[in-house]
Amino acid sequence: MELNSVKETVGEATPAGARTGPEVVVVGAGPCGLALACDLVRRGVRVLVAEQAPGLFPGSRGKGIQPRTREVLDDLGVGDAVREHGGPAPVGMAWKDGERQGEHEMFRRAAPTGTEPYGEPWLMPQWRTQEILLARLRELGGDVAFSTGLTGLDQDADGVTAHLTTGPVRAAFLVAADGGRSTVRRALGIAMTGEDVDPAPMLVADVRVAEDVLDRLNWHVMTGGQGFLALCPLPGTADFQLVARFEEGEPDTSPEGVRALVAARTHLTARDVTEVRWASDFRPRAALADRFRAGRVFLAGDAAHVHSPAGGQGLNTSVQDAYNLGWKLGQVLRHGAPDALLDSYEQERRPVAADMLGLSTRIHRGEQKRGAAVQQLGLGYRTGPLSVGRAGALHSGDRAPDGPAGGGRRLFDVFRGPHFTLLAVGPDTAPPVLPLPDGALLRTHRTDAHEAYEAYGKGLFLVRPDGYIGWAGEDPAELVRYLARFGLAPVTAS
User: Fold this and answer.
1) Do the strands 459-463 and 420-425 form a parallel or antiparallel pair, or are they unpaired?
2) pLDDT digit string, tens, across residues 141-165
3) CATH class of 390-486
4) β-pairing, 218-223 with 91-96?
5) According to CATH, what is the number of the domain 88-114+199-283?
């Protein structure tokens, strides 16, 4: 089909001349695609989420939500739902030959602080995370087109045509959030560079176990002659996630095979596994796409980077890809920011993904423990192209800490939403008056609360919509020049 004929069948115009088709096509309705769609829709961007499966992914696979991702989900409006349906990671219990060997911590735990409201990983099965994000997307006015696959794409200087199983769709941009075997990435010819983390295959499954044979107070780790097997209770459900490694042979993912595996490696019998709800096999691999952008198409989540599950980084890095890309697409599509802003997505996120891949691999191989790095609170973009200046205790590119904002509110309450925030910190620091154009997404806030003053130091801090400091300093003229990069330049008198 000729591209010109595609243009005639999509993006129909209203009588006023406005296009009614999507501005962004998101391929894939996993956590990354759904988080991106939520962020775009709340910015007024028209989005089509195309998912080839008839429904959401049914398994628990990515069950760990790190503290930084909890902050992201809170900003997207689902923090309460995540708190209600998840729970802290249980303490590990080592078993050997059917005997308890004692408890051990699986993760670093830290108490919440005034600057970091979440101190430990939060467990929630991936299917529940996706349910929560889909409900939020629908609340915002969006939805997912299920049973809608991508068969190909074309792009030119003006947009992208996605060839879907339901027909062609024309949009300004397309985002591949369609997993490690990404159809989009392959269509673009973008290579993945990586390695097998472990030559042994693994099995993951969601199972239910008779109540009287295994408690839900621990994350049970079984070792012995038959090999490693772990059973982790999934908060908010009656399920356990089962993970097993195979030194020899291939995993049998049938219900009978899973039951036989449990009977062979634990003190439980096959009959004790009352239900096998979902099962899959995989080989741990670490791989990174050579590029995250090709013209008007972006790779995000597993389409851009594939992790070993050992570090609990895959889902988290994916959601944060979406959080980084969403506001930039919004500024370009809705607020006149230059297209060059979108280049910063790859420049900022690819180094982060590479670091997280290395971390996950080292943890899988036993070369590093699950310490503070897995929480992703220390990630930032200091060397990125959007980071300018420093003030007080912080450098541009750093994560903006939480703190008291006055009136019983926290700074995260002030930041929550699709806007930039100009934060003036210190008793003698006042935000400059900036005559911005109508609809500019910039709010100002001043605080001299002692706790915030300690975390930030004195100065002006421009907090990006994704919670990182873009600009820091004391000179309003420098700030004005910086704001112009995002379509936020103040209006000048003619």
Assistant:
1) antiparallel
2) 999 999 999 999 999 999 999 999 9
3) alpha beta
4) parallel
5) 3.30.9.10
